[in-house]
Amino acid sequence: MASSVDKPRLVLRVGVAGAIKLTDDQRVQVASRLSDVLGVLVRQIERLAPASGVDAARPGICSYYAQPSPNAAAGRPTLRLVSGLADGSDQIAFESLLALEQCAAGGGDGERAQARARFELVAILPSDVASFRDNSAVKHTRAFDALLARCAYVLELDGICPPESDDPGPA
Question: How many CB atoms lie within 10 A of CB 156?
């Protein structure tokens, strides 16, 4: 008896948290390393996904995803990057994934053309967006807003983000 339930998509979720304050050299190094790692991850999930051809060296899970599915979205693997979207490493990671997406779609100077993988950004914030952006240590608010707009979804936790104070407290 055939099942009417669609297969779940193949999704690899990668969480990123890192340093906020980085020198220019560190920013370049972090971006380069993240691009390399994300590139490896997307190639691996594409290898596991359907339409990759039959290969005896592929893991057994590949046969599950190789079966036809009425849900076309199930046929495209997804690399989902999850972050708190703070300045520094968090934003660099999002920018690296967007650059990989552009390159994979044929808009970059990389060797890839028309990637089969989907790319998603997800932000998890400790409070509502406005409070976090305006009251936290986020200094690059334009980058924050631009990256936030590219998120597939944003999870706002119920925390409170009061304005930062320059007062160091009792001596």
Answer: 15
Query: At residue 64, what is the residue type?
Result: Y
Query: Of 41, 140, 146, nearest to 87 (Cα)?
Result: 140
Question: Cα dihedral angle (118, 121, 122, 128), rounded to 10 degrees?
Answer: -140
Q: Using one digit for the tens of pLDDT, what is the confidence trace for 47-87? A: 877 654 555 566 666 666 666 666 655 567 899 999 999 99
Q: What span, in angstroms and rounded, lies between the C-alpha atoms of 99 and 96? A: 5
Fill in the amino acid letter for 162: P
Sign of CA dihedral 100, 102, 108, 114: positive
CB 110 within 8 A of CB 103: yes
pLDDT band at 136 (very low <50, low <70, confident <90, very high): confident
Backbone angles phi, psi at 11, to 5 degrees: -125, 125
Residue tagged 């779940």 (tokens): 8
Count Cα neighbours of 163 within 13 Å in the Cβ-side half-sphere.
3
Full-model pTM? 0.78
